[in-house]
Design a protein that fits this description.
Bound molecules: zinc ion
Strand content: 15-25%
Largest sheet: 4 strands, mixed
Radius of gyration: 20 Å
Order of helices and strands: EEHEEHEEHHHHH
Number of strands: 6
Distance between the termini: 20 Å
Shape: elongated
Strand order of the largest sheet: 2-1-4-3
Length: 206
């Protein structure tokens, strides 16, 4: 079991090996938020409980290349499964309506498939908006879309304890935690390049 590392802002960053987390604590680069009283590690001077959650004392900026591509799973979760134009939740859509990915500035007009240009929209609103900008046809977004910063959590989540999951939900909300778990479950079945991800995550924190 690894240790969940949070940024100074409490944003969950990644899972670190416990030995590495302990070293950050001993070097005073991180503080312990949760520990496992049943597992101990011995440093030169003292016996320390295994940290479950640590928080970095200094904020680290996460480079863009570590961020995640837009997928509908995380897009819909980010927007809490609500159409960002009419505000309807997935659960109250009618018969043939469904959630879609809408490009705020349409691709046909140079809009990118990027987190700050995509929102969740019901099929009705998406059809109505077509290749317009929202303002051109009197549509308004409920909130300005931003890029979420899940970093390595997507692969890490399958290994988290309940205590660690609580910190992820605290920062991102239950919807994101559920989406992460579902995604991890699927990934587990087609196990591939996770070792590369792991190596990347570890280079961020030193
Ligand atoms: Zn709608």
């Amino acid at each position: 079991m690894g240790c969940l590392a949070l940024n100074a802002s409490f944003e969950p960053l990644t899972i670190l090996p416990v030995e590495r987390a302990l070293r950050l604590v001993i070097e005073r680069k991180a503080e312990v938020l949760e520990e496992d009283d049943a597992r101990f590690y011995r440093s030169e001077r003292e016996r320390m409980a295994a940290p479950l959650v640590i928080r970095l004392k200094k904020f680290i900026h996460v480079p863009r290349r570590f961020r995640r591509q837009v997928t509908n799973t995380f897009l819909f979760a980010r927007d809490a499964y609500r159409c960002q134009y009419c505000g309807r939740h997935k659960s109250i859509l009618r018969g043939r309506e469904f959630l879609t990915r809408d490009h705020v500035t349409p691709v046909s007009r140079g809009g990118e498939n990027a987190w700050d240009n995509v929102v969740t929209a019901c099929s009705v609103c998406n059809n109505r908006k077509a290749s317009h900008l929202p303002a051109e046809i009197g549509m308004h977004l409920m909130k300005t879309p931003h890029e979420p910063n899940y970093v390595e959590l997507v692969w890490a989540v399958r290994r988290v304890t309940e205590v660690q999951a609580k910190y992820i939900a605290m920062f991102y909300g239950e919807e994101i935690l559920d989406a992460l778990r579902r995604h991890a479950h699927e990934a587990e079945r087609k196990e591939h390049h996770h070792h590369d991800d792991e190596r990347h995550a570890l280079t961020l924190i030193s």
